[in-house]
Amino acid sequence: MEERRRREEQERIVLREKWGKEVEEHKRDMEERRRREEQERIVLREKWGKEVEEHEREAEERRWHEEAERLRLNMFWTDVTSHACTTYATREYTARLVNVPSYYNRRVEACMATPVMIHGAEYTPKWCEDHGPDNVIGHWEVDQHEPDCASFWIWYKDFGCISPGSGQRRIEHYLENIPSGGDWKEFCATTPASFRGMHFTGAEFCFNRNHATWGHWVVDDESCE
Fold it and tell me: In terms of Cα–Cα distance, which of 113, 123, 128 is closest to 146?
């Protein structure tokens, strides 16, 4: 029996040593794996960084060449035309790009890069239409010096608390000076308003009643709690 116990104890010692070696080997393998993965990530980050730099450099060179070509060809705008108001204090303009050679195949890029003078300030187009060398149309939305497009709120109405304990108050305003042909919903939603020490970029809700446009706000109010 004593001999048997001695052998079993010896076997346990051998097993523990074996397990210990396996654990250490596993730790070394995991550490080596983490080291390789981290090295691979570093290499990838460096590669991506170089690719991004190369892409940005090529894009900058392309923009420079396009600008140089545009200036060399002396493209410019004609037939600058104002159109309807599109949103609060904003009007659409169009113009036609001229001096565009028939062989030039980057007409939209040239259109987007060529500024036009409106109200004494330069604007680049918001978008362009290419219908051929003699019919490249630029579109602008100008939001400065357009008073005829500026709607405004009047007739402030405080309808009081929505209900007892609601903590909210209902306010209405009448919208004045909507431009002819303008979308009342768009102007209602984008005409700024200020009341009760608060400022809003437009009404929270809009409705049209008897051909009149009203803006509606629900605001927090502790006195309604």
Answer: 123
